[in-house]
From TrEMBL:
This is ATP synthase subunit b, chloroplastic. It is found in: Membrane; Plastid, Chloroplast thylakoid membrane. GO terms for cellular component: chloroplast thylakoid membrane; proton-transporting ATP synthase complex. Keywords: ATP synthesis, CF(0), Chloroplast, Coiled coil, Hydrogen ion transport, Ion transport, Membrane, Plastid, Thylakoid, Transmembrane, Transmembrane helix, Transport. F(1)F(0) ATP synthase produces ATP from ADP in the presence of a proton or sodium gradient. F-type ATPases consist of two structural domains, F(1) containing the extramembraneous catalytic core and F(0) containing the membrane proton channel, linked together by a central stalk and a peripheral stalk. During catalysis, ATP synthesis in the catalytic domain of F(1) is coupled via a rotary mechanism of the central stalk subunits to proton translocation. It comes from Chlorophytum rhizopendulum. PANTHER family: ATP SYNTHASE SUBUNIT B, CHLOROPLASTIC.
Amino acid sequence: MKNVTDPFVSLGHWPSAGSFTFNTDILATNPINLGVVLGVLIYFGKGVLNDLLDNRKQKILSTIRNSEELRRGAIEQLERARAHLRKVEMKADEYRMNGYSEIEREKANLINATSDSLEQLENYKNETLHFEQQRAINQVRQQVFQQALQGALGTLNSCLNSELHFRTINANIGILRAMEEITD
């Protein structure tokens, strides 16, 4: 039985008289084969390769345009956010300043109200002291007057007889009537 590969192996030893032969020299045949294959690929694959490259180019350009639009949108949003931040910071500063001035105003009002309250308390204290002094003076006067009156009555009672006593009462009644007529 013959081997199937025998005819291919023996092809290199055939005579070249009008027949087709394979060149088995690798160094000589590889550049020729590669040139033929590349030529065929370039000729037939040029359109497909151009279409693929054009599609890829369009996708890249579209992606770049979309990226640019997104970047512009992001920049606009960033600027709006910065403007909003500036407004918020200004309002916060305004609230802070208003708050500080309101606190200072409340502090001043509280100090004034406390001062007024202290002044009123001082006035009430002084009035109370004056009232208590007057009351104490009046009590001392009444006690001195009562003691003087009792002493005078005791002296009069021991020194006066009933006739002198009667004349003194009548004179005092006359003085009281004269005072009553003056006030009417």
